[in-house]
Write a structure and sequence with these properties.
This protein is α/β, with parallel strands linked by helices and 409 residues long. The protein has two domains: 54 residues, no CATH class; 316 residues, TIM Barrel, CATH 3.20.20. It has twelve helices and eleven strands. It has a nine-stranded mixed β-sheet, covered by helices on one side. A two-stranded antiparallel sheet has the order 5-6. Helix 6 links the parallel strand 8 and strand 9. The longest helix is centred in the first third of the chain and has 17 residues. The protein binds iron/sulfur cluster. Iron/sulfur cluster binds next to loops.
Length: 409
Amino acid sequence: MSVSIDLSPRTRAKAPVPPASADERPSLIGMTRDELAVALADCGVAERQVRMRVRQLWHWLYVRGVGEFDAMRNVSKELREALSVRYTIARPEIVDEQVSNDGTRKWLMRFPARGAGRPVDVETVYIPEEGRGTLCVSSQVGCTLTCSFCHTGTQRLVRNLTAGEILSQILLARDRLGDFPDRDTPDGAIVPAEGRRVSNVVMMGMGEPLYNFEHVKTALLIASDGDGLSLSKRRITLSTSGVVPEIYRTGEEIGVMLAISLHAVRDELRDELVPINKKYPLEQLMQACRDYPGVSNARRITFEYVMLKGVNDSPADARALVKLLKGIPAKINLIPFNPWPGSAYECSDWEQIETFADIVNHAGYASPIRTPRGRDILAACGQLKSQSERMRKKDRVAATGSAEAAATG
Ligand code: SF4
């Protein structure tokens, strides 16, 4: 059952879809410093002032987290006006916000249309835990890959998110959680007792981040910039299904922590569960992991392994997993499968998961069984699928009365 939080306009908002032409202004959020310099020069800022103005904008956008030009108090009125005519720094619209019984939050965010396209909806999830708050960020609307256990994989790719849209998910979450100066934490919110509300970011939401490499790279370099959001690269994890060439680029050009959506230890089964395996089989994937820059016992690669009853959860699979990861500083996350409507799998029995975990732990790998979070609001791993897609399906079913439409997603 979904649990919606209080329905005041501050925490739950519904608004009509703006027309595609509503706001064609590009966002300053997600621009590199060089791009900001060009934007400022376009607004008439003298060359000798550009660097100073870039520093000011960066501070307002990423340290103070402002969402309107008028809040930039040390920027002249003329420049604020010139900027606002050409650019926007607005946050995405919040279409829905849900809070799970366990404190997990899921936002459905709507980004304006780009070009001839339509507005798009994206889900972002916040998971508070002891001492940390992790934000699970989306990189694409839908996904081209069709991992058979994943709900997002049933939604066709609509488009890649821009660097600004990826960053905006972090900014909006920090707004809502009171993680910027002058912002309040919602009453009763479960957040870390000390430090940042959003302390960690995982690129593990909708989409395959390495199929949107340039935008993800720009966004993560801005997120980890020490003069702005200042998230340590050790607290940013990029999760991939195994796009091997871009794993090498991630290590060299971004330098964040790596997670692999593994789920099977034999090519035959992985071809079925994670079909990109047909293109980049396990041997190539494991080599890319061994070669990942900076990987060490202090900077382990995380391997995600969803527990599917009777599919990949036998003791023999556990032993094969240990063998496969030999020599790679690794952490294994065992994920009890989170069912979604129409999925073909069941979650492994708890005893089976514990037996599996024992074998892996005994071999020296830290392998926590990830407690399912946000299940009641379909916010758990592999369950993300935009609300608009669900609504469209509902409409199709209502229009046709077709059980087939209901089953195909
Ligand atoms: S697991 Fe990731 S890559 Fe695979 S279908 Fe789901 S969102 Fe796409």
